[in-house]
Amino acid sequence: MGEPLKVVVWSTGTIGRHAIAGIDAHPALELVGVWVSNPAKDGKDAGELAELGRELGVLATTDRDALIALKPDCIVHTAMADDRVFECIGDLFGFIEAGINVTSSGPVLLQWPEKILPPEMLEQLAESGRRTGASLHVNGIDPGFANDVLPLALTSLSQRIDEVRVMEIADYSTYYQPVVMGDMFGFGRPMDYRPFLWEPGILTMAWGSVVRQIAAGLDIVLDEPLTEHVDQQPAPFDTDSVSGDVKAGTRGAVRFELRGQVDGVDRVVLEHVTRTHPDQMPEWPQPAEGGGGYRVIVTGEPFMQLDFTHHGEHGDHNVSGMITTAQRIVNAVPAVVASPGGLVTALDLPLITGRGLVSKA
């Protein structure tokens, strides 16, 4: 297998701590550094931050330059990006400029940024990649595997495709991300509160990469702009949530669609059904199992529906959602390092597997 690739984890929050565990378990990777933004974590062992119950001998640091100076083969970037998109893009572009490969969980628009970022920014990234040989891959579970590799693989069984619909159906009450839950979705806020996420064009910025990448994989050109549909409903009763309780009458459930059309006909649709309690809006689509999961529906010949559910060994679907997000970008590291440089999408990468991760016991 050769020498393991040297990897730095950038942030140790809800995704980053799982990335540390994933790198530690991966035979082709070696953790050499950890960046933290919180001074209280500075100097702490990565094993402690990842709650592994043992030390890894790698101490976290707030010193960005020291980690860059390590010249790792790859940075696994898991820092919160939803509320600092362009600052985060600047960080990622800087890593590529420094000749360091990156896999990242965000900003998710970089999954397929055409028609979202200005062409000059994309050319800047491409030029840096050509010059340094470093590659950037942004992925996860959603946006990511559940709505790029999974649906596109399913369409390989199609004779005719009328519509591809990718869905997340989930109860977010155990999802710990107060900024996303309260400020962005507006859960627990009055119904007249206007979260930024529901302003016109923002859904396209956030999830347009999903719809356009599937379209590219199917070799179709979508009408522009994409169409957005949002249905917001109040909570019928008080609900406990780890990110802030949701009182009756406040925003409790949201269903949205981002539709990619060809000549006015829906061809690629992203849909999210997000509840803060499983009993809310029973008439909306329900998950196949437990508190949530993903669904792919390919309408055509033949009709196909695939439900993808998951749950953690020590937690629910929200815990495993963080694990799968982390593992998608951890397991992609060798392929991204081997890529020629610049932005690398799911359409560019070879098959990524859990190579080397089968239990020994």
Q: Approximately how much helix is present in the residues?
A: 25-40%
Q: Could you state the order of secondary-structure elements as H and E?
A: EHEHEHEHEHEHEHHEEEEEHHE
Which structural class do you get from the secondary structure elements?
A: alpha/beta
List unreliable stretches of 5+ residues: none
Question: Cα distance, first to last residue?
Answer: 21 Å
Strand portion, in percent? 15-25%
Structurally, the number of domains stands at 2
Mean pLDDT: 95
What does this structure look like?
The chain is an alpha/beta fold and 361 residues long. The protein contains ten helices and 13 strands. It folds into two domains: 147 residues, 3-Layer(aba) Sandwich (Rossmann fold); 168 residues, no CATH class. Helix content is 27%, strand content 24%. Helix 1 crosses helix 9.
Short recap of the structure:
By secondary structure, this protein is an alpha/beta fold. Helices cover 27% and strands 24% of the residues. Helix 1 crosses helix 9 (317-331).
